[in-house]
Design a protein that fits this description.
30% helix; 162 residues; six-stranded mixed beta sheet; 9 strands; alpha+beta; three-stranded antiparallel beta sheet
């Protein structure tokens, strides 16, 4: 990525414009830069709900209450030639988290549009292509906030137990 950036700068200096648009490199960089912040916000939300969260420093896989694992994936918005929005969600098959938190980003990669809570048991895929609307089979997993994920971490006292 750094090598491509240097190459593009060199092209600009000599006045050459490549046929392919490499603007996606900056978009990918912006999404990668957001990832640690989003993971930290999710961890804080889970902990605020009463959950105990640990993060694997090598994979960023979250373990919640020693009960389930979650991976966080950010997906940048791509505008198709027709003007419609598209998102490619790449799921990590090696980690096989119980839940993948797929964050669809707004165009410009500055904010989250919405969230998909994708259970591994139901969607054993390596990638998923999303449109603005995806039908009930996928949009049943779509949420405007992360509250449903945080609710999974909440602890509920059982009456009569000390």
């Amino acid at each position: 990525s750094q090598r491509f950036t240097s190459l593009l700068k060199a092209y600009q200096l000599i006045g050459y414009t490549p046929e392919r648009d490499f603007a996606f490199l900056a978009a990918n960089r912006a999404a990668r830069a957001m990832h640690p912040t989003v993971v930290a916000e999710i961890m804080a939300g889970l902990e605020h709900a009463g959950g105990k969260v640990t993060r694997d420093p090598d994979t960023d896989l979250l373990t919640v209450n020693d009960e389930f694992t979650a991976a966080v994936v950010l997906s940048r918005c791509r505008i198709a030639p027709s003007g419609t929005r598209r998102w490619l969600i790449r799921l990590d098959e090696c980690l096989t988290p119980d839940i993948t938190v797929a964050v669809r980003l707004e165009p410009g990669e500055t904010a989250a549009l919405d969230y998909y809570l994708l259970p591994w048991i139901d969607l054993q895929l390596s990638s998923l292509r999303l449109r603005q609307a995806n039908g009930f089979g996928l949009d049943a997993f779509r949420f405007d906030t992360l509250e449903p994920l945080f609710d999974l971490a909440a602890r509920t006292p059982i009456r009569g137990m000390a």
